[in-house]
Amino acid sequence: MWDKDTRISTFLQLFKPILNGQFFKQIKDLGVDKYVKKLFTTHLIIFMIYAQLEQLKSLRAISNSLNNQDSSQAIALESISFSQISRRLNNLPTEVFQTLFKHLTFKVLKEAGVNALNESLQRIHIIDSSTISLCLTDYRWADFRTTKAGVKLHLRLRFFEKGVLPEEAVITPAKPADKTQMDALVVDEEGALNVFDRAYVDYRKFDSYCENGTRFVTRLKGIAIKEVVEELPIDTDGPLKKHQIVLLGNPYTNKMKHKLRLIETVDTEGKPVIIITNDFDLTAEEIGDIYKNRWQTEIFFKWLKQHLKVKHFHGKSEQAVKNQLFIALITYCLLKMLELKTGYKGPLLTIKRLLKTCLYEPFNCFVQKLYKKPTRPSKGRRRPPDHEAIYQETLRQVIAGETDHLNDLDYDPVIL
After folding, report:
1. 140-161: b or e for each residue (b if 16 or more CB lie within 10 Å)?
2. What is the pLDDT of residue 121?
3. Fewer Cβ atoms within 10 Å of its own Cβ: the N or the C terminal residue of the chain?
4. Average pLDDT score over residue span 343-363
5. Half-sphere exposure of 31 toward its Cβ, with a 13 Å CA cutoff?
6. Ranges for the DUF4372 domain (predicted)?
7. What proportion of the chain, given as a percentage, has pLDDT over 70?
8. How far is it, in rounded angstroms, from Cα 216 to Cα 261?
């Protein structure tokens, strides 16, 4: 299926984690290609990842990409209609993409190696979600508000050498509360520490976590009812404002049975941040620093929405939307694997942009261009010349008789 030129290309290096016997076997076991004659699952996945990289806006544009001879030869497909792509995207079980996503996240962590991970952060799992707005007329199944629809991408992310890596994903309509997905996302393994925000506060869950040893760190809502059991000492010159042992909840309705630590610190703007945890081993300063690292999830969601296609969908069914979101996560994982393979330390966006022009070139050419230094370093944004000041200075020189330099061909008043 893949010719010799492709075997040494950047294309193959990018898609190598997908084009392997293990994934082909999974596809065969699922039976999704049993009656397919032309557009196989691997074709569809490569098409959609290519659309992510190129930011193609329609299925017709994806279909037309085969007019490029390099694309046609690499994928081993001469042509396909946009309607065929649409049908497969809408009908292919989301389990296929979900399985591939989990496989790739495992491979990224494995290729990074234990030494490449930050030892102090490797057991921290961040749980968060982001809502993607949709047109209510086209996506009735995802009704969110009176005039708006939406889907919510729930993620569990793991601290990585350069930011975070998604390791578990759940996609739902936007209406259900975040805390309804805690069972699917919270890690109960020994040594794992779950970090999430106020949207996941659930006192009954917290009690169960205390009973089974599931560690968590979260932020407390300002209106929360709490009983202070013990005041713990703090450094008055440090960032901490409070350190207490508390019981949360209303004693008549939902009061917790287990005690928690309450730590009050301040954010970068000086506003109070109240954090609670059932971890009694880490210091209060460490707990505060761990929660503050949640900002990296915001960067991840922002990157995903800006540089991958997750705001415009090629299909209107729930299955098509979920498939496209998983393809975006798969694309991110493939970019991270390419980043690890090249050892590149710069922005991930640079790799994505360079792939658009070097996808069918030899991989060594791609690496050389990735590491190529700019021949003319930028001097940054320069202020426009002050023409009035130049005129006044030249006039002063003429009146004073200081005019010899004005006849010099190298003289330029603008750059003085």
Report:
1. eebbbeeeebbbbbbbbbbbbb
2. 47
3. C
4. 91
5. 0
6. 7-71
7. 85
8. 11
Amino acid at site 361: E
Whether 215 has a pLDDT exceeding 90, the answer reads yes
d(CA 226, CA 55): 49
Using CA atoms, how far apart are residues 52 and 322, in angstroms rounded to an integer?
15
pTM of the shown model: 0.83
The better pLDDT of the pair 403, 131 is held by 131
Q: Which long-range contacts (CB under 8 A, 24 or more apart) does 274-277 make?
A: 274/219, 274/220, 274/222, 274/242, 275/217, 275/218, 275/219, 275/220, 276/217, 276/218, 276/219, 276/220, 276/246, 276/248, 277/215, 277/216, 277/217, 277/218
List pLDDT tens digits, range 76-93. Answer: 888 889 999 999 999 999
Please classify residue 7 by burial: count the beta carbons closer than 10 Å to its beta carbon, then call 0-12 exposed, 13-18 middle and 19+ buried. Answer: exposed
305-319 b/e with 16+ CB inside 10 Å = b? eebbbbeebbbbebe
Question: Per 3-state DSSP, what percentage of the chain is helix, strand, and coil (rounded to 5)?
Answer: 45, 20, 35
Round to whole Å and give the CA distance between 187 and 202: 16
* Cα–Cα dist 164/195, whole Å: 13
Give the model's pLDDT for residue 162.
Answer: 63
Asked if the model's pLDDT at residue 322 lies above 70, the reply is: yes
* C-alpha span between 169 and 328 (Å, rounded): 12
Category of 132 on φ-ψ map: left (φ > 0), alpha (ψ -120 to 50) or beta: beta
Which H helix or E strand runs over 129?
strand 124-134
pLDDT at 119 over 60: no
Per-residue pLDDT, averaged over 237-255, amounts to 88
Burial tier of 320 (Cβ tally within 10 Å: 0-12, 13-18, 19+): buried
> How many Å apart are CA 94 and CA 108, to the nearest integer?
21
Q: Which of 50, 38, 27, 16 is nearest to 314 (CA)?
A: 50
DSSP 355-407: HHHHTTSBHHHHHHHHHPPPSS----PPPPP-HHHHHHHHHHHHHTT--GGGG
